[in-house]
Input
Amino acid sequence: MRPTNHMLICGTFELLRDGLLGFFDREMPQVLGDPDWFTEACRRFSVANPRPRRDEFEKADPSFLLNVLLSKEHVDLRSLLGKRALTPVHALARSRNDFAHFRPFSDRDAYAVMLQTSELLALVGADVEERKLKILEREIVQRLYSSNEAAA
Output
């Protein structure tokens, strides 16, 4: 049975989370000056965004990790990645929100999410996750080509 786009995007966001956690574990202690980067990031993010309560944050949530990258309080972290990283981070934050609200994703949408994730994983140096993502990308590419051949 072929995996659905929902399943493929879920796998993509899991790989994104794993890659970003590795990057955060490497870089955040130096950026924040605190080995417990998660607690400090939550504190800074809570001050800047009073709406979500601190106990609602999860280290394993790719949405939180993307929002930390977008947060103005973490400019040092963004400068490590460069301005080029902002495009996939913004796009992935929107896609993650759409995914959380059960918006349907076409094959093209799923492929776009995978390409953005691949770009961000390359920027954060998550080679293992990037290689795993290539396997998911092949599934979508096969679908895109098979649907194009059927339409012709």
